[in-house]
Amino acid sequence: MSREEKLFVRDFGLHLRALREERNLSQTKLEAIAGLSKNQVWRIENSEVNTTISNLVLLAKALDVKIEELFEFRR
């Protein structure tokens, strides 16, 4: 992964954390609502993984946002 891609994944994770915290959800609770595997949210928020499109759909539904809103962060 290029440096630019790594920065994007990092910024995405930080934005996901902010959205989750705005809704007073723990990582475990968000995983349960979204149907994601254990520690998946932690891994996304901490730039450990470049998540899949299907996970984005699940996260958007669980957070009650449009998929586009997952990408509304400053770079």
From TrEMBL:
Cross-referenced SUPFAM superfamilies = lambda repressor-like DNA-binding domains (SSF47413)
Upper taxonomic lineage: Bacteria, Pseudomonadati, Bacteroidota, Flavobacteriia, Flavobacteriales
- DNA-binding: is it a keyword of this entry? yes
| Protein known as | Helix-turn-helix transcriptional regulator
Matching entries from Pfam families are given as: HTH_3
Instruction: Report the domain of life of the source organism.
Output: Bacteria
**Domain HTH cro/C1-type: residue ranges:** 16-70
UniProt keyword annotations, A-Z: DNA-binding
